[in-house]
Structure formats: C-alpha cells, structure tokens
Write a structure and sequence with these properties.
196 residues; Immunoglobulin-like; 37% helix
Length: 196
C-alpha cells in the first residue's frame, strides 16, 4: 500500500514538472527566468536526485525482503540441527535414544510418582553429550508398580550443537505407552554447565 502511494507521488511530481514546461511553451527565455540554473541546478542534477531517490527506496525494500529470507533460513537451520529424543520401553528396559543430531549438556530428571522406581535414575543424571543412535539405558529391568494410578515422568534438558536449549517431557502410564510432550525451546537451561 505504501509503495502505491509513493509511486503516485512521484508520478504527480513528474506530471507537474512536464505541465510547467508545457505552460511555458518551451521558450528557453521563459524557462530560464523561472528555473535559473544557478539557483536550481541543471537537468542532470535533478535526474541524479530522482534516480538516487528511487535507488534508495528500492534498496530499503530489498534489504527488508532479504531480512525476511534470512529469518526463514535461520529458522529452517535451527529445525535441522535440533536433536530428536525418544524414550521407549524395549522388552523390560527403559531406554533413551537420540534419533536425530547429537544432544549436548543433557540433564535427565526423574519426575515420576514416588512408587515408580527407575533404578539408574534416582533423581537426576548429567551427561556431556549423547550421540545419535547410541541407546542410554535408564533402567534395564523396569517394572510398573501394581498401582495402576502411578505415572512415569521424565524431564530432559538438553542443547543442540550451537547451544540452543530445549526441554522435553516424557510421560507413561501403566499401559507402557510413552507419550512425548511438546518440545519447548528455553532461553537458558537451569543446568547449563557454563553457569554452574
């Protein structure tokens, strides 16, 4: 919308200038009295001013479009390097697996109900990194208690290779289907080793 008004304004200025020249009937003597080159400059100066104005306008417009494109590419890149984690039951084992990209500064917190015991994860565990495809066994002989109301809960803080921090929660009820909650991007991990 702004571009349209700018274009109309420039067209009005050009038409007005041409109309003035027509009214003065192209007589050089009339024009020289009205447009004195010592005061107003010559035609080349005015042409350069108009061209510079157009150039500046379109440069600003191009920079804005380029900024949008850069933001889209940055977002796409962050999606590509984001680690993908999965917690699953394999036979009687409770396993954490990094499916895509390595995870760094990993902190695993047991948020399960009191009667749900994860043997290798009493409270929290810290890992410098977990590579893709290497399973991390949280419990090699996991069993839900007889109480069907109990829930398994694991909260994981981790970073990608550029230091962007994430938090992901995994929940499982007695039926042993692990549900991954939405991955949340956090500004700062409370367990970042650089801050401890």
């Amino acid at each position: 919308m702004k571009n349209k008004y700018f274009f109309y304004g420039v067209c009005n200025v050009i038409v007005g200038f041409l109309l003035c020249l027509f009214l003065l009937k192209g007589n050089p003597h009339n024009i020289s009295r009205w447009i004195h080159y010592a005061v107003w400059g010559n035609v080349a100066d005015w042409c350069m001013t108009v061209i510079t104005g157009f150039t500046a306008f379109y440069l600003v417009k191009t920079f804005r479009e380029q900024r949008k494109t850069t933001e889209i590419e940055q977002s796409r890149f962050l999606q590509e390097i984001k680690p993908s984690l999965k917690v699953a039951f394999k036979n009687k084992e409770l396993v954490l697996l990094v499916e895509k990209n390595g995870a760094y500064n990993v902190v695993i917190i047991n948020k399960s109900d009191k009667d749900v015991e994860i043997k290798d994860l009493s409270n929290e565990a810290h890992f410098e990194n977990i590579q893709t495809g290497v399973p991390l066994f949280l419990d090699r002989n996991f069993q839900f208690p007889a109480n069907t109301e109990s829930a398994l809960g694991i909260e994981i803080y981790y970073s990608d290779r550029l230091g962007n921090n994430y938090k992901q929660t995994f929940i499982a009820l007695h039926n042993k289907h692990v549900i991954s909650m939405e991955l949340v991007h956090v500004k700062e991990s409370p367990f970042d080793p650089r801050k401890i």
